[in-house]
Design goal:
Immunoglobulin-like, single chain, 18 strands, mainly beta, four-stranded antiparallel β-sheet
Length: 257
């Protein structure tokens, strides 16, 4: 049995492998303070949202995600964070347009209970645009009502969903240089196996790393209900998180050559 305990002014506690039928004493500590500054061009950025999330995403090890804003000089301090664990720290994409960029997710290991871990200066880097289009495998027009979502694979952060135009096009701005997932939502349609960046373990996203602007990310859909088991093609990478995000390309037929 695993138990999560939260109390005001204490760090969240995760207690795994507790035997049933016995009394257990569960002790909470004061946690770690994580302090730092968000910086662009040598100056602190005010009113910028900073995120912190547990690297361990298993039910037993996940210690939560946290968000806090910076002061007028760009400083921040997360209180009562569970100690001696690894976290990703970053700025949120929702501030990218105002800030002219995003702090990419970076790994930080926290100290012992009661200590302060210094994250240092988190440097804002240029963010990018992801533009693309949805197409159907049978060549028919896209039904109305499609929406797209974009999230980051390490950071606990996603942009607001966007509408897809009648010709299947969508655009996201403020995306950092890191691994992302792009998820279409269209009733009666699912992702098709030929998508080279398909997340085959989960089945609902295109995943991969971006290094700059993406001008035409083509995503292939097909009629049908959601299908989780996409692992029939054993030669494909089941989760290409750290490979470049790739667009679907229709095969060239002999008649087209």
């Amino acid at each position: 049995m695993s138990v999560s305990v939260e109390a005001r002014a204490f760090a969240k506690g995760k207690f795994a492998k507790l035997s049933s039928g016995e009394e257990h004493v569960l002790r909470l500590g004061q946690g770690v303070t994580v302090a730092g500054r968000v910086v662009k061009n040598g100056k602190g950025l005010a009113r910028t949202s900073v995120g912190l999330v547990s690297v361990d995403r298993t039910p037993e090890g996940f210690t939560g995600d946290y968000e806090i804003g910076t002061t007028e000089d760009g400083r921040f301090a997360f209180p009562t964070i569970p100690p001696e664990r690894e976290y990703f720290i970053y700025s949120m994409m929702k501030d990218a347009q105002r800030n002219g960029g995003v702090v990419p997710a970076q790994n930080i290991r926290l100290g012992k209970d009661g200590e302060t871990t210094r994250a240092g200066d988190l440097i804002v880097e240029r963010s990018f645009r992801i533009a693309g289009r949805l197409i159907l495998a049978d060549g028919t027009p896209l039904p109305p009502g499609a929406r797209m979502m974009l999230g980051r694979e390490q950071a606990w952060d996603q942009l607001p969903s966007v509408d897809v135009s009648s010709d299947g096009r969508f655009v996201f701005d403020g995306v950092p240089k890191e691994s992302i997932s792009v998820t279409p939502r269209l009733k009666g349609c699912r992702l098709s196996l030929p998508n080279p960046s398909l997340d085959r373990l989960n089945g609902f996203s295109i995943i991969g790393r971006i290094e700059g602007d993406v001008s035409d990310l083509v995503i292939l859909l097909e009629p049908g209900e959601f299908l989780r088991d996409y692992q029939s093609d054993l030669g494909a990478d089941p989760q290409p998180y750290n490979k470049p995000l790739r667009s679907f390309q229709a095969p060239v037929t002999r008649d087209a050559q």
